[in-house]
Amino acid sequence: MHHRAFSTKQGGALLLEAMIAILLFSLGVLSLVGMQAMAVTNVSEAKYRTDASFYANQIIGQIWVNRDNIADYDYAGGAPSAALEPWLDQVTAALPGVADNPPEIEVDGTNVTVTIFWQSPEDAAKDPQPDPHQFTVTTSINCC
Asked: How many domains does the chain have?
């Protein structure tokens, strides 16, 4: 009969252990979901940086090919030259927020500095908005 009294004192212990186990498992799953969301954000940012690098190097290649008309590539916003317009269309289509933060190309003699700005959709939704991300590359375009 004492066996029965002992078992009633232990009633619910297994249920409590199961609830704690479910709680720990749930916290683990939520942590994994959070890590996955952060990984997706980091991959998106890396893609934007890679695209900005590609487009900056692409325009530098075009300037090298057309180095006799290097002054046509000087751009700080406004109406682009005919040589620059297709490139600007590509950059605007590929990177988010470029329409609000246009690229800049500074031509100083034979030195060329290309700066591409972008702002991720997550940053654009923040209030206040943070400064846009940027990629800058400088090169020297020498003749022959």
From this structure: 1
